[in-house]
Design brief:
Elements: E1 16-17, H1 20-40, E2 47-53, H2 57-72, E3 76-82, H3 88-100, E4 106-109, H4 119-125, H5 137-144, H6 153-164, E5 173-177, H7 184-193, E6 197-201, H8 208-212, E7 217-220, E8 238-241, E9 245-247, E10 250-252, H9 257-260, E11 266-267, H10 274-297
Parallel strand pairs: 1-11, 2-3, 2-4, 5-6, 5-7, 7-8, 8-11
Antiparallel strand pairs: 9-10
Helix pairs in contact: 1-10, 2-10, 6-7, 6-10
This protein binds NADPH dihydro-nicotinamide-adenine-dinucleotide phosphate (NDP).
Length: 301
C-alpha cells in the first residue's frame, strides 16, 4: 500500500494500529499445522532449550511466555536454570552438551547474563545450526551476505509485520533508530536486502528529527520512552515501534503513540505489537533449525 492510499478525502490519515498478536497467531497456526504433519509422519517434534542463569523475574516471565508458545504449537521446550554465581566455564560445558545432544534443535541463552559471563564468548560457543537467537558471529556474517537461515527474532518480526501490512519496501526510505546487534543492525540489513534505502541512526546522530521526517518506514529501537514525537513522522509512514520501557507500571514505546495517530499509516503498539512477533520468530527459527538439521544429518528425527 502507498502513503497516498492512506490519506482520506479530508487529508488526514486513518492510522492502522497493527495487531501484532493477530499476525503472530496466524503464523503460529501455520507452524502448528506443519508440526502436526511431522508428528503424524512418526517424527519427533522440534525441540527448544532455554538456559537461564540467575533468577531475574523479568527473564523468568519471558521464558514462561516462550515455553507456553512452544507448547501451543506442539513444539518441545525445556528450561535449564542455574544459579546467578554460575561460572562462564560451567555454562560453556552446558552449551557443549546441548550442542552434542541430537534431540535438541534450538538453544537460547537468556540475556542479560551475570557480569562474570561474557555474552560474546557464550555466543561463539553455540553450535551455529542451533543458534535460534542468531547471536553466533557466523550467523551475523551470513546475514550480511543474505545467506542466513537463522535471523535475529525481532528484526524478522518487524519484516513480517511490514509484509503482512503490505508495506512496500522497494525504493522506500527506511530510517532505523538504534544500532544494537540484536535489533538495529540486523533490521537495517534486512531492510536494505528488501531494497529499501536505509539510514541507520544512533545516539550521536545529528538532527535525528529531520532524518526521521524523511522516513517512509521508521523503526524505533532505542528504549527511550516516547522519544519520537508526532512531528518527526512523515505523513503516511509505517512506524515500527520496537522499544518497550516500563513507565509508572505501564509499557511505553519509543514513539509517542497518541501523537502518531492521524499521521502514520501504520503503527505497532507497545503491547501486542512487535513483542508477540519476536516470540513467533523464535519458534520459526527453531522449526527452521530442526528442518535443516534433519536434512544435513539425514536423521529421521
Ligand atoms: P540497546 O540499548 O542495545 O540499543 C539502544 C540503541 O538506541 C543504541 O544503538 C543507542 O545508540 C540508541 N539510542 C539510545 N538513545 C538514543 C537517542 N536519544 N537517540 C538516538 N539513538 C539512541 O537496546 P536494544 O536494541 O536491545 O533494544 C532497544 C529497545 O527495544 C528496548 O526498549 C528493548 O526493550 C526493546 N526490545 C523489544 C523487543 C520486542 O520484542 N518488542 C525485543 C528486543 C528489544 P548508541 O549505539 O549510540 O548508544
Amino acid at each position: 500500500m502507498t502513503n497516498d492510499e492512506h490519506n482520506s478525502a479530508s487529508g488526514s490519515i486513518n492510522t492502522v494500529v497493527v495487531n501484532g498478536l493477530e499476525i503472530a497467531n496466524t503464523l503460529r497456526d501455520e507452524m502448528a499445522e506443519e508440526i502436526k504433519t511431522l508428528v503424524a509422519d512418526g517424527r519427533r517434534p522440534p525441540s527448544l532449550v532455554v538456559v537461564l542463569i540467575g533468577d531475574d523475574p523479568a527473564s523468568r516471565s519471558y521464558i514462561k511466555g516462550k515455553q507456553r508458545a512452544c507448547t501451543r504449537i506442539g513444539m518441545d521446550s525445556r528450561e535449564l536454570v542455574f544459579p546467578e554465581t554460575t561460572s562462564e566455564f560451567d555454562l560453556l560445558d552446558v552449551i557443549k552438551d546441548l550442542n552434542e545432544d541430537d534431540g535438541v534443535d534450538g538453544i537460547l541463552v537468556q540475556l542479560p547474563l551475570p557480569k562474570q559471563i561474557d555474552p560474546y564468548v557464550v555466543a561463539e560457543a553455540l553450535d551455529p545450526a542451533k543458534d535460534v537467537d542468531a547471536l553466533h558471529p557466523n550467523t551475523a556474517g551470513k546475514l550480511l551476505s543474505g545467506r542466513a537461515d537463522l535471523i535475529s527474532c525481532t528484526p524478522l518480526g518487524v519484516m513480517a509485520v511490514l509484509d503482512r501490512c503490505g508495506v512496500e519496501t522497494e525504493g522506500a526510505h527506511a530510517v532505523v533508530i538504534g544500532r544494537s546487534d540484536i535489533v538495529g543492525k540486523p533490521v537495517s540489513i534486512l531492510l536494505q536486502q528488501a531494497n529499501a534505502t536505509v539510514t541507520l541512526c544512533h545516539s550521536r546522530t545529528r538532527d535525528l528529527a529531520s532524518i526521521c521526517r524523511q522516513a517512509d518506514i521508521l523503526v524505533a529501537a532505542t528504549g527511550r520512552p516516547r522519544m519520537v514525537k508526532g512531528d518527526w513522522i512523515k505523513p503516511g509512514a509505517a512506524v515500527m515501534d520496537v522499544g518497550v520501557t516500563e513507565v509508572d507500571g505501564k509499557l511505553v514505546g519509543d514513539v509517542d503513540f497518541e501523537a502518531a495517530q492521524g499521521i502514520a499509516a501504520y503503527i505497532t503498539p507497545s503491547r501486542r505489537g512487535i513483542g508477540p512477533m519476536t516470540i513467533t520468530m523464535l519458534l520459526r527459527n527453531t522449526l527452521v533449525a530442526y528442518t535443516k538439521r534433519s536434512k544435513h544429518s539425514g536423521h529421521s528425527a
